Amino acid sequence: MNKNKFSRRIFIRNTSLMAAGTVAGALVGKTEAAEIQRIVKKGRINQSVSRWCYGKFSLEKLCTVAAKMGMKGIDLLGPSDFPTLKKYGLVCTMTNTHGLSNGLNNKKIHAQCLDKIRTAIEATAEYKFPNVITFPGNRRGMPDDVGIENTVTALKQVAGYAEKKKVNICLEYLNSKVNHKDYMFDKIKWGVEVCKKVGSERVKILYDIYHAQIMEGDIIRTIRDYKEYIGHYHTGGNPGRNEIDETQELYYPAIMRAIADTGFKGYVAHEFIPKRDPIESLAYAVRVCDV
Q1: Host domain of residue 74
Q2: Of 196, 182, 175, 186, which is closest to residue 241 (Cα–Cα)?
Q3: For position 90, which CATH number holds?
Q4: For 243-271, what is each residue's pLDDT tens digit?
Q5: Whose CB has fewer CB within 10 Å in the chain, the N or C terminal residue?
Q6: What total of structural domains would you count in the chain?
Q7: Helices 252-261 & 278-289, crossing angle to 10 degrees?
């Protein structure tokens, strides 16, 4: 490799991270809305943040912080939270439905899960928000092909309603190695096969980059190869699901550029658990993902 090119690459990477650190550092201790400045400048990535990662903040405070930074919404909320989001001009980028360990691969609970999905779709459509979440559940000894068949059977019953309401149903990819033992959708091809068999433009994959890195890696190639099936993204540092900074193995500026280059117009939600000052950590993440 040409030494000059190698040095330039390192310089660009380090400069990007330094710039993000400068922005984040300027916000240390600034927890009042008036002290937080807009971070998003380019806006090629529509960013949001997962509510559960900021449990110490009220929803009002998280909305204030997100709006000030230039984020577009809050992830993983329910219909009772929608009026608060509207007040701040934000979107619920992913609406909750049923639990993740008992899901659509189990025919015995299809009716229960589908009822929650339909209810979420109706509320989400009323506010003109984009997505609801779903899960296949754990394997419990079930072969992958049977899980695919059962999940497809369920999704075909609700896909038409999602199409009518113009809401995406996003099936989440999670890791079964560290966090969610026995979870069925732990390989990208499993979810792609489900999407293909359902055959609806409104059934997509929630591609969680943290989980995918643990299970398969090869993040950028996967984003490029399966872009038509991905409807939503989650971020997170690996190892540990903490800050997406120089302490972990994923380089998010390159990942975000790959997402933007596919023409993706949906949302990327930050789903990491801050170990440091929450606002500082979120500011850093927003900056490095504003590509």
Answers
A1: 3-289
A2: 175
A3: 3.20.20.150
A4: 999 999 999 999 999 999 999 999 999 99
A5: N
A6: 1
A7: 50
